[in-house]
Amino acid sequence: MTAERAEIRDRVVSIMTKVFNVDDARALSLSPSNCEEWDSVRHMEVIFSVEEEFEIMFDEKDMSGLDGVEKITDAVCEALGSSPREGAR
Amino acid sequence: MHVEKPESSAFGAGALRAIDLSIERLTWQRTLFAERPRRSDLLGLDGGWGLKPLKLYVHRNHAFEPVASLAERFLAYSGWRAEIEYSPYDDTLSFVSWPGDADVELIWLDFRRYEVDQLFDWFVGRVRQLRSGSRAPILVCDWPEDSPSGPSFNERLRETLSAMPDIFVCPVHELHGELGPRFYDERISAVAGTSLGNQACIGIARLLGTSWIPAALGSGVKAIVLDLDNTLYAGVLAEDGPIGVRLTPAHRALQERLVELHGMGVFLAVASRNELDDVQALLDARTDFPLQRRHFSRLEINWEGKAAAIRNISAYLRIGADTIVFVDDNAGELASVATAHPGIGLLHASDDAHLTERTLSNYPGIFRWRLDETDALRIRDLEADQLRSSFGAENQDPMTVLKSLNVTLDFMLDDHEFVPRVHSLVNKTNQFVLSFSRFSQGDVMDFIEAKGKHCVAFRLRDKLSDSGIVGAVFLSHESGAIRVDEVCISCRALGRNLEDLMILGALRQAMAAGVSAERARFRWVRGPRNQPALQWLAACSGQELDGEDGAVDVPISLRQLDELRDRFPVTIGTGA
């Protein structure tokens, strides 16, 4: 993983800890399938918070797929034109 | 923000916890009142101080949840733990499954879902229906729309609903004007259940949490006590001198805001550790400051602690510390004041004075839905009171003093015009209040309109000033007796030996209008600060008031009350 991607992922994790009120370790593994609190409102909170943090805007069609730290990090990297995860291509 | 905490031996664990919580609340300022608050920063706030529960019921046809999660933080800053309940998504506002026990009702509609032509009359009818069934304040968010329909709809809505008691039209359209295209975000509507963008949600949350809801519930700041150095200007007076301290653009904006608040009837005072001569020289020299000497009702300039200064200011202004906001750049001073004056508002003056100004402008209790006549009178009335006190010192006989002041007392029976002012008095008075009923505007209207009930408001003026409406008596009558449900008198009207005339005169007004009674039963509740009211009642009834609450009977007759009225050299009127 590049240093740039790692830094982005850390910031995404920080957002997830605040939105879901969990610690870093739990935030890393969160998804709608393993977290009852991850409903449409929380999903909106995650999207808005990430857009704010990185000053980006996601396409509407991509929003539903942002369902975990790694996918969100990938999407942020793509939006910023940063290096994706190694092996993701 | 680092704070040197006092030695633990000087305070108990409870007091240290209170200091911790006060300081914690201050650390929220930078996040809550940032120029563009961030959602994730707001979500990371978790308040631990004592919060009062607040039931908010949202009548809605689109999602409020994206606002709610943020509004909870702003409401916590204002002192409430929000318990939010929702109606189903309902375009018809049918009020089905509405529990009816909310502390605040909020109408939250996306008006774009309706046909404009048929909207207005129908909507006002639904609001009337809600008003008739709920005693809580009702907030109605208006239409954030810049097509021709929106502004005219909003204007008609404000004109129509402002005539109804305890209904407040929230100007969401103003935020729409500020944010422009960023207000709506259609990308998110399928996920969030609303088309409001992120900044719109944050802006509305802040307005609801620190301005609109607190104002609807009667929160009101009466005085702002200010430090000087690095608060009202940049620099230290003792080091830089009166000319050397800097009025930066941000400090100018802060001072201008304070001048504006002064014009709205908020007292300004200074509590500063400085030499009095230096401060006088500053006020003389700095004619470029928006704030001038005449804006300050009191200067406490000495080397004593600020807690003592605030005690003096509170006594001089005759207001409780819980209606004061103290602004200082020194967190240690804020902590010491927090310990000495539980309930006082605290604002940390930032090195960024724009942040200080934004925090002050959004501080709970600063925004008011309506200014009544008494807000503007308050400051002039205090100045007049100083003259009255000197009058009294020269003339020891109270009746001679009253005669020389040409006092007029007007009684208004069941008058709708004074509902907002009476509602404000009955909710904010802490010293001269008998039973802490804290009536809503709906309750006040009920006393005015219902058979067998009355509300008598009274207005006080003399040759020095017009104090406006200073008190009210709420009564019910049945079977030859009057039950006095509440009495409240503003502390500004106390100390003139007029309490008997005001209260018994109000009863006389009701009896002259046809209420027949041989006795008046006064309900009373003992509170932390209403000794003046209880002492009056004990003296009037000739009975001791034991315990925490009760009722006492006072024999009355119209002839007896006429004789009382005639003993006072006061003109009695009806306010016509």
Q: How is this structure best described in words?
A:
- The complex is a heterodimer of chains A (89) and B (576).
- In chain A, 62% of the residues lie in helices and 0% in strands.
- Chain A has 89 residues and is mostly helical.
- Chain A contains five helices and no strands.
- By secondary structure, chain B is of the alpha/beta class.
- Helix content of chain B is 42%, strand content 20%.
- In chain B, helix 4 (65-77) crosses helix 9 (198-216) and helix 10 runs parallel beside helix 12.
- The longest helix of chain B is centred in the middle third of the chain and has 22 residues, at 373-394.
- Chain B starts with 12 loop residues before the first helix and ends with a strand.
- Classes of the chains: A mainly alpha (89), B alpha/beta (576).
- Chain A binds chain B through residues 14-15, 18-19, 21, 40-41, 43-45, 47-49, 51-53, 57-60, 63-64, and chain B through 38-41, 43-44, 46, 63, 65-66, 69, 187-188, 190-193, 198, 201.
Summary tags:
heterodimer; A: 89 residues; mainly alpha; 62% helix; globular; B: 576 residues; alpha/beta; 8-stranded mixed β-sheet; 5-stranded parallel β-sheet; 18 strands
Oligomer: heterodimer
Shape of chain A: globular
Distance between the termini of chain A: 13 Å
Number of helices of chain A: 5
> Roughly how many Å is the radius of gyration of chain B?
26 Å
Identify the most extensive interface between protein chains: A-B, 22 and 19 residues
Mean pLDDT over the full residue set of chain B: 89
